[in-house]
Structure formats: C-alpha cells, structure tokens
Amino acid sequence: MSCATIISPIEVLSADDLGRRRDWSDEEKVRIVEESLQGFRQGSATARRYGLSRSLLTAWRRQYRSGLLSVSASTGFVPLTISPPPPAASAEMTAPLRSEDDMTIEIGLPNGRRLTIPASLDPIVLARLLPILDMS
Question: What is the DSSP string of the chain?
Fold first, then answer.
C-alpha cells in the first residue's frame, strides 16, 4: 500500500523581511509633494521613485494644499506681483480715484491662503500677524 504524504509549503518570514514603515519628516514630505506637483502626471512617477503608494502621496498632497503640511518656521522671500490697474473702458465711466485709506494689499501665504489688508496697516502689526496666520 502506498503512503500518501501531504506536504504543505510553509514559508517562515523573519522580522527583517517584513519591511518597516518609514517616518518621513515634514521637510521631506513637502519636498516630495512639491516635486510631484512640478509637471503633468508626476504623482505616480514621484511615488514610485520614493517607494510610496500613490494613496499616501495623494493624502500628503491634500494636507499640503489645506495648509496642514508645511515646513515650520521657514523664512524666505515670498513672490510679490503688482498688477497694473485695469484700463478704463471710456472716459465717461472712470471711477473716482481711491484715497490711500481705501487701498488694500493682497498677500498669498505659503499655505495657500490669501490675506487682504489695508495699505495703511502698520508693518509691525503685520509682522506679528503673519506667523499666526501661516501656522493655522
């Protein structure tokens, strides 16, 4: 009589084979997200380059856009553009000139928010206000 033996394939995995989660710093996340936003369809390629899943990169991008993911206490220059006033349609429909009290300045913050302030605001007050608005 023949003896039938059943051999089941068992694979023993060591702790080293399982892989580890990588702890990414906020600076690395911001750098990777900004790289993924550089061109058309760069998300998948950037995720593969860094060994990330696309869903994780998508979550980081969402956090970046909402201002939750940012490099803290970074100082630097913010691009400023001053656009010329729109041309008047006709001489009859020109608006009266605005006084200096009515003029406003719009500031784009690194977290994507926009801040509109009066042009007459004291720069010291603005310097105190910007770090608070940039963090929240």
Answer: -PPP-------PPPGGGG-------HHHHHHHHHHHTSSTTHHHHHHHHHT--HHHHHHHHHHHHHTSS--TT---------PPPPPPS-STTPPPPPPGGG-EEEEE-TTS-EEEEETT--HHHHHHHHHHHHH-
**Where along the chain do its domains lie?**
23-66, 102-135
Span 80-113, pLDDT tens digits:
677 777 676 554 555 555 555 678 888 887 777 7
Distance CA 32, CA 58 (A): 11
Specify whether the CB–CB gap between 120 and 114 falls below 8 A.
no
Distance CA 44, CA 29 (A): 15
Tokens of 129: 């206000």
pTM > 0.70: yes or no: no
